[in-house]
Every structure is written in C-alpha cells, then in structure tokens.
Fold TetR/AcrR family transcriptional regulator.
Amino acid sequence: MASKAEQRRADLREKLVVAAESRIDRDGAVALRARDLAGDVGCAVGAIYTAYDDLNALIMAVNGRTFQKLGQQVAASVQGAEAEVATQRLILMSNAYLAFAAENTNLWRALFDLKMQAGDRVPEWYVQALRDLFANIARPVAELFPNDTPEELDLMVRALFSAVHGIVLLGLEQRISAVPLDKIKQMIAQILSQIGG
Amino acid sequence: MASKAEQRRADLREKLVVAAESRIDRDGAVALRARDLAGDVGCAVGAIYTAYDDLNALIMAVNGRTFQKLGQQVAASVQGAEAEVATQRLILMSNAYLAFAAENTNLWRALFDLKMQAGDRVPEWYVQALRDLFANIARPVAELFPNDTPEELDLMVRALFSAVHGIVLLGLEQRISAVPLDKIKQMIAQILSQIGG
C-alpha cells in the first residue's frame, strides 16, 4: 500500500499533468510556466519539483497522454474498415491523423518539439507508443508490398508516416503552404493513391 | 546616390546579416542575442534597431539568403539531367534538398520556425523564392500527370514537397525516427518511385 506521502505525490502528479495539458492545449508548450501551474493546482512552485524533475518531464507526461489519444484515434479509423483496400485504409488513418492534429494542434506540436528533448533520453513508453502507431500502418503496407523484406517494409512505414506528417505539418502552417483541410485531405489522397499502384 | 548615412546603414545591415547567419548556423535562431551581434560587428546594441526593426526582421533577412542557396542547390541537381525520367529528376532534387538540410540544419530549420512569423506578414521575396522552388518541382510532375488540371498539378507539387520535407525533417531528428542519411535517401526513393508509376 502506498504511504500517505506517496499518495499525495501521485495526486499532485495527476493534478499537474491535467493542468499542464489544458495550458499546452490553449497556449502551446513554450508558454508553460511553473508559477501558473502552481496557481492552477493550488500548490507552492517548489512542490512541482517534488512531483516532476522539471517542466520538460511534465511536458513529456502530457505527451504520453497525447500520444495515447492519437494512437486510439488512428486505430479507430480503420476498425470495421477491414474490407477496404490497403491504400484506402492508409488514407483513413492519415485523415484521422490530420483531424487529430487540426483539433489538438498545440498538443500535437508538443510531441515533435525538439527543444523539449535535447540531451534527454527517450522514455520507453514513448518508443512503445510510436511502435504501436507504426504497427497500424505496417498492416496495409505489408499487403501492398508482399515481396519486400522486413527491413524494406519498416523503412516504407517510416517513409509513409513522415510523408503524411509533412503534408499535415506544412498544410496546417500559416506560412509555407497553408491550405484548407479538404485540400490537405486531397494532397494525402493524391500521394497515397500512388503507393503500391 | 546614397547619402553617407544611408551607406553606413546599408553596410551595417550587411555586416549584421553575415554575423547573424554565422550565429544561426552554429547555435540556431532561438539562441540569437542582440548583445552578441553588437559585439560581432562592433556596434552599440541600439544601432542594430536602426538597421532592422527587430531580431525577427534580421532572421528573415538571413532566411532570404538561405532560401536562395537552397533554391540554387535544388535547381543545380537537375541541370544536365534533362534526359533522366521525371521520377528520377524528382529524386535528384529531393536528395539535394536532404543534403542542404543535413549540411545547414540550423539555417534550414530557421526557414520553417513558426514562432518567427507569428503575426508578421510573409515578405514578397519569400513568396517568390517558394514559387521558384515549386516551379522546379512542377516540371517533372507535369510530365508524370499530363491529364491533370493546373489545380491538381499545383496541389501535387505541394504534396510532394511536403512529403519529402517530412521525410527529411523526421529523418534528421534525434527522436522520432532518426536514421542514417543513406536510409533517408532510400525512404525518399521508395516514395517517389511510386509516383506516376
């Protein structure tokens, strides 16, 4: 059984991750301040560092929740769509990825913010979440390229994820090539419909 | 003829953009400080703001130079390669893009750093540089899809650029799917060899 002190620390961690998620969602990860979080959960600023090593560790905890929701949304997009051809299932997952990024832009951006990770080790749960996401993409890819080696398939899965990520990223930006959501969907379909064709 | 004051201002602008380019190349755009730049060029901190409205304007000036070099490198990669099939020319340009990003990572990242642009208008030279870059990609794309409308071709050019950008971006990152350069090249070829096939 957890001691009272352990329980209090677990409660504080949970409150902080919820508060941080809400703030990142609204203002982005760069705007996160310990003082604001302490106000949100009603603790001293110093107490935050009894629950998390630093703000980066707290952002990584938020990223863990974001990655889980993203993975669920992507997986759900092909549930019941097993009869669709492989290319169509890739498009469904990509559109789910786009929808998640469009609806949770700041939380999604935090997943890819390099500065957060400089010098840090990637946590095991993070690697696992990425592996789960890639496993969903690997199924249709294996159907499209039945003669590829596992190494070729693995690289194709990464390439397709990165390609769709690039289309979503620049499509949602204000500057490089901002376009309406249905145009982003069209770009995804234009590229993916060529794969394995 | 320029007055002496105008000439001094032009000289200061030139010195500052060279100093800023060197610092961004080494440390990234987020690390740029007015105090350091003043030391580099031997002027007072306040004098910087007689030459540029703010540091963002200076970073945009560096981005202009970077975009020009990037465009030249991409265009050069297909000079003398007119006999290659369209897909191969797309791969050559993408590899040139990858090489530029790998050799000038901080300068290249500054081109895409959203924070730099929040609320600012995109300068005309920036839009033009992007248009020139896309024009290079449009030639092979038009050969691959002779029956597409101009709107479809334009969207395909953006989609392909964004897809290759995503592969280069995540490929060069430390965290999401870092892979050696030859693997990034392989991913680019895997995707592009499917286009129009």
Summary: Chain B has a mean pLDDT of 90. Chain B has two domains: 1-52, 64-192.
